[in-house]
Amino acid sequence: MSVTTVHIRDKLIKEFGAVLVDVEDTSPNRCAASFKVLIVSPQFEGKPLLARHRMVNTCLAEELKEIHAFEQKTLTPEQWEKQKAQ
């Protein structure tokens, strides 16, 4: 399996009905070994941070086997709007 920013973004949008998914390849030379992800989804409403991260890790379980570093930020639409206003 080839892990790309497009693959990760598409999978997260489909799984979480996300309002926004931003995926950045942060590895040197963009070799798909390290990713930074922002996910804004109503499915995160009422869930603590750890539960949100577990949801994402479960969704990307196969991909994470090939990734060396994965940073994620998971927000509800309301949290995203507040953050943008700051």
From TrEMBL:
One of its GO terms (molecular function) is 2 iron, 2 sulfur cluster binding. It comes from the Eukaryota. Signal peptide: none annotated. Pfam families: BolA (PF01722). One of its GO terms (cellular component) is cytosol. One of its GO terms (biological process) is protein maturation. Belongs to the BolA/IbaG family. PANTHER family: BOLA-LIKE PROTEIN 2 (PTHR12735:SF27), BOLA-LIKE PROTEIN-RELATED (PTHR12735). This is BolA-like protein 2.
